[in-house]
Write a structure and sequence with these properties.
mainly alpha; Rhopdopsin 7-helix transmembrane proteins; two-stranded antiparallel ribbon; 2 strands; 72% helix; rod-shaped; DUF6545; DUF6545 domain-containing protein; transmembrane helix
Length: 393
C-alpha cells in the first residue's frame, strides 16, 4: 500500500513540477514562484530517493545511510520552501526576510541529521523503522531531529494557510481547506512520531501502535495536500476547457446572423479567423457589431423596443436596402446592447437574434427546417448555407 501511495505521489509531483517549469518559462517569476518550484522539485526527488533501487545505489556508492539522510534532507528543503510559499506577508515581515530566517533552522536540522547518522551503527543505518531500532540513541536522535523539523515546518504552513483561508472564497477556499487539513495531519503525525521515538528509546512505552498511526496520518495528510495543491491547476484547466466548449457552441450559433450581415458588408470580415474557439467567437462578435453599426442608419429607431423576431425582419430589410443603395448614409448608432461585461455577455443577445434568423429562414425555405434545431442548440454543426448566403469555414 505504501509503495502505491509513493508511486501516485511521485507521478503527481512530477506533473506539478512540469507545470511549474512551464509557468516559469511563460514568465511567472518572483520568490514565491521560485520557492514553489524548489518545493515541488525537492519533494519529487525525495520520492525518487526513497525507491529501493535509488536507495541501494546511494548506500553502495556514496556511504551507508546516505539515502536516508538525503531523503529527509530533501523533505526538509521542500517543507522549508513551502513555508516561504505560504508565508502571509505583513508590513513588518516580507517573504524575502522570512526566507532568510528559514535558512538557519534548515541548516541546523541538516547538520543534526548528519551528526546523528555518524553515531548510528552501519547495520542500523539502512534498517527499517521499528521499536527495536529506536533503542539505539543515534538512530532515535536522527528521527527525532527529522520529525521535529517537519513538525515545525508543517506547523508554520498551517498558521500561514489559515490566514489565507480566512480571507479566501470559492474554489480557492476549498483548496486551502484541503491544504490546511493536509498540513495539520502531517504536523500531528510528526509530533506523534517524536513522542513514539522518545517513548521507545526510553523504554517507557511501546511504539508499534504509534508508528501505525503515524503512517496512516502521513498517508491521509499527503493525499489531502496533493489534492489541495493540485486543485487550482485542475480547476483552471477545467474552466478553460469549459470556456472553449462554450465558445465553440456560441460561435456556431452566431453563424446565421454573421452570414446574413456580412453578405451585405463583406469588408468587415477580418483576414484571419484564428484557430481557437474563443478567437473565432470574438471575431464574429466584432464583425457582427461592426455590420450592425454600418446598417444602423437603415434600421428604424424603434428597433430596440420590439421583439427579437421583429428585429430580425428589420435587419433583413436593412440588408436588402444596403445592397440596393450600395451603402448607407446618415448617423450611426450602437445596436443590440450587451447583457453585461465580457465576451459571453456581448455574444448572448446576438445569439438570440441568430436563432430567429434560422427560424425565419426555415419558414421561408421548408427544406431548411431540419437545420433549425442545429442553430437553436449551438452544439450542432452549422449548415453550409442560409437563405442563399454562403457560410464561412
Amino acid at each position: 500500500m505504501t509503495d502505491i501511495i509513493n508511486l501516485v505521489a511521485l507521478v503527481a509531483f512530477v506533473l506539478a513540477l512540469c507545470w511549474r517549469l512551464d509557468k516559469i518559462r511563460r514568465g511567472s517569476g518572483g520568490l514565491q514562484a521560485i520557492a514553489m518550484t524548489v518545493a515541488i522539485s525537492a519533494l519529487t526527488l525525495a520520492f525518487v530517493v526513497s525507491t529501493r533501487t535509488s536507495a541501494h545505489y546511494l548506500d553502495e556508492h556514496v556511504y551507508v545511510g546516505s539515502s536516508r539522510w538525503l531523503y529527509y534532507a530533501l523533505l526538509a528543503l521542500g517543507v522549508a520552501a513551502l513555508v516561504i510559499v505560504f508565508f502571509f506577508p505583513t508590513a513588518r515581515a516580507t517573504r524575502e526576510r522570512r526566507a532568510g530566517h528559514e535558512a538557519f533552522p534548515l541548516v541546523v536540522a541538516l547538520i543534526g541529521l548528519q551528526v546523528a547518522l555518524v553515531f548510528t551503527p552501519d547495520s542500523l543505518r539502512t534498517s527499517s523503522v521499528s521499536e527495536w531500532s529506536f533503542k539505539n540513541w543515534g538512530f532515535a536522535l536522527f528521527y527525532i531531529i527529522a520529525s521535529a523539523y517537519l513538525a515545525y515546518g508543517f506547523g508554520a504552513c498551517v498558521r500561514s494557510v489559515f490566514k489565507f483561508y480566512r480571507v479566501s472564497e470559492g474554489y480557492l477556499r476549498f483548496s486551502l481547506g484541503l491544504l490546511l487539513a493536509g498540513f495539520g495531519l502531517l504536523a500531528f503525525a510528526s509530533v506523534l512520531q517524536v513522542l513514539a521515538v522518545l517513548g521507545s528509546a526510553s523504554g517507557l512505552i511501546g511504539a508499534v501502535n504509534s508508528l501505525i498511526a503515524v503512517r496512516t496520518l502521513d498517508i491521509v495528510g499527503i493525499v489531502a495536500f496533493l489534492v489541495g495543491i493540485s486543485f487550482p491547476m485542475l480547476h483552471s484547466r477545467w474552466t478553460e476547457l469549459a470556456a472553449r466548449r462554450r465558445h465553440r457552441r456560441a460561435a456556431a450559433a452566431l453563424e446565421p446572423l454573421w452570414s446574413l450581415l456580412t453578405s451585405a458588408i463583406p469588408e468587415v470580415v477580418l483576414p484571419e479567423a484564428g484557430r481557437s474557439p474563443t478567437q473565432r467567437l470574438h471575431r464574429e462578435v466584432v464583425e457582427i457589431r461592426d455590420s450592425l453599426t454600418q446598417l444602423s442608419p437603415l434600421v428604424p429607431e424603434e428597433f430596440d423596443d420590439v421583439d427579437d423576431e421583429v428585429k430580425v425582419a428589420m435587419l433583413r430589410d436593412a440588408v436588402e436596402a444596403y445592397r440596393d443603395e450600395g451603402g448607407a448614409s446618415g448617423p450611426v448608432r450602437p445596436m443590440v446592447p450587451a447583457d453585461g461585461t465580457g465576451l459571453d455577455a456581448e455574444a448572448a443577445p446576438l445569439i438570440r437574434l441568430s436563432r430567429f434568423v434560422v427560424e425565419d429562414s426555415a419558414r421561408e425555405d421548408p427544406d431548411a427546417a431540419e437545420d433549425v434545431d442545429a442553430y437553436v442548440d449551438p452544439g450542432h454543426e452549422v449548415p453550409t448555407t442560409m437563405r442563399g448566403v454562403q457560410a464561412r469555414d
